[in-house]
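Human:
Take a look at this sequence-structure pair and walk me through the tokens.
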Amino acid sequence: MDIAKTCAIVGASDFNAEHFLAHPFGFVIAADGGLAHLEACGAHPDMALGDFDSLGYVPEHPVVERHPVMKDESDLELAIDRALELGYADIVLYGALGGRADHTYATQQTMVHAVRHGARVYAVGADHMETVLHGPAALDLPACSAETFSVFAVSDRVEGLCESGSLYETDGLVLTNDLSRGLSNEFTGSPVRITLESGDLIVFLPVLPLVDL
């Protein structure tokens, strides 16, 4: 991933400041209460966006995009749409996992939406990260030791799933979204490659440097 051509979006949930600060992103959007996270670590976003109900005030920022509280889209979804409109194909979400379970699920749905529109999206939490693949697609992961990863179907079916370099390898597997098959595969110290032919797959990973992805 070319970090200089990547947009980071920071929301109000659990924030992995260390990981964020290690990556000099090309563009940063504060989504509502995410601005407080950025200010706390001395970072300055390029844009502040949202209804600002979580933040509690409309910020004094050179670029503010204010939305009504009563709206259909979440602030995170609006921020992703803005990143796509600005031409960013690589998007990293912070402050979008943890906290309320329904908010995390909304993040995952929004990731599927963005990936179906051609983006590559990662969400980074305190102790794990997530991405979504829209088939046909491939994901190459660096060698890790003593770490696990999991994959689950988001669409009704994922077809042609192959995992190589992992403890449990698959070749043309079909996954459905009503079974937990795909839970807790393991890295073995070798690079891992995940491919699928069709469908939407969510991948749960350890926190990795984005330059390795």
